[in-house]
Specification:
14 helices
């Protein structure tokens, strides 16, 4: 792929990672993990001197920044600090934010912008996608698949079945389809199979999930995913875990808590 295509793939994968905003580099030093903390296999840390209260404050600020792209206000900071102090897990707090209307709205808008750059999308249509997401459907079924099966996709490209297949592989997997994949998917489209089954198959594939996991680790932990973590989280997906649950497990880990 050329530099422009690489840049587009990176942008799309970042949006699909849940519209997170990458944080400025933080010291990788770590405090001893609290009881019950999730340990990631590739975690390598040294102690720091922050108090538990300081670590909780840093965690709340970081998770707001990483998920919502903003700082918590004074009331939010106080509420979540108190929740952590009284026994609410960090994973539960991450899940709460991941299920919020604010994050869902951000995800819908940024994913639409990533998949359909330069396309003006009616606010009512985006509202429909948001309503599906808020009703409990997955991010893939409620947002990503409807966008890539729409008549606007792929943008600024010659219409045609081969163009669609090539674009969806590039946007969701970061690569072009193999000759066999292209031939098979084009044949499916031409026989009336529709775009949705192709998009659903890709977003449920281990390859797609590996791309998501790699982006989560880069964004949240500032490192490449290790083999043991990848195997563990792929097993979570295979057992029915949603993207939000996997993200919350990473955000609730001792390694993320230790970042400053």
């Amino acid at each position: 792929m050329d530099a422009m295509q690489n840049a587009k793939v990176a942008f799309v994968l970042a949006a699909l990672a849940a519209c997170v905003t990458p944080m400025l580099p933080r010291d990788a030093a770590a405090a001893p993990p609290p009881p019950g903390a999730t340990h990631l296999p590739g975690d390598q840390r040294t102690p720091d001197k922050r108090t538990p209260e300081q670590r909780n404050t840093d965690f709340v600020r970081h998770v707001f920044h990483d998920l919502l792209g903003r700082a918590p206000d004074a009331q939010e900071l106080g509420v979540y600090q108190h929740a952590l102090t009284t026994g609410t897990s960090r994973e539960a707090i991450a899940l709460l934010l991941l299920g919020s209307n604010e994050l869902h709205d951000r995800f819908v808008k940024q994913t639409a912008a990533a998949l359909l750059p330069g396309v003006t999308i009616a606010s009512g249509y985006l509202g429909t996608l948001l309503a599906r997401l808020n009703a409990g459907d997955t991010m893939e079924r409620s947002v990503i698949v409807p966008l890539v099966e729409s008549n606007h996709y792929p943008p600024k490209m010659r219409a045609g079945d081969a163009s669609f297949v090539t674009a969806v592989y590039r946007d969701l997997l970061g690569r072009v389809p193999t000759a066999n994949e292209l031939s098979s998917d084009v044949a499916s489209l031409q026989s009336g199979g529709g775009r949705r089954p192709i998009a659903m198959r890709i977003t449920a594939s281990p390859e797609y999930r590996e791309k998501l996991l790699a982006s989560f680790f880069t964004t949240f932990l500032g490192r490449a995913i290790d083999a043991a973590s990848q195997q563990s989280f792929l097993a979570m997906f295979a057992n029915g875990a949603r993207r939000e649950q996997v993200m919350a497990a990473i955000l609730g880990s001792a390694e993320y808590y230790a970042r400053r």
